[in-house]
Amino acid sequence: MVRNRRNIGPLLIILAGCFWGSMGIFVRKLTSFGFSSVQIVSIRVTLAALFFSVLLLIRNPAGFRISLRDIPLFLGLGFGSILFFTVCYFTAITMMPLSTAAILLYTSPIWIMLMSALFFREKLTGRKLLALALAFAGCVLVSGISGEGISLTGLLVGLGSGIGYGLYSILGTVALRKYSPYTVTTYTFLFAAAGSWLICNPSDMVSKFSAAPSPISLLLFCCLTALVTAVIPFLSYTLGLQTVEASKAGILATIEPMVATLVGILFFSEPITLLSGLGILLILAAVVLLNWKTESTKKPPENA
Question: Among 144, 188, 247, 302, who pairs with 99 as Cys (CB 3.0-4.6 Å)?
Answer without folding.
Answer: 144
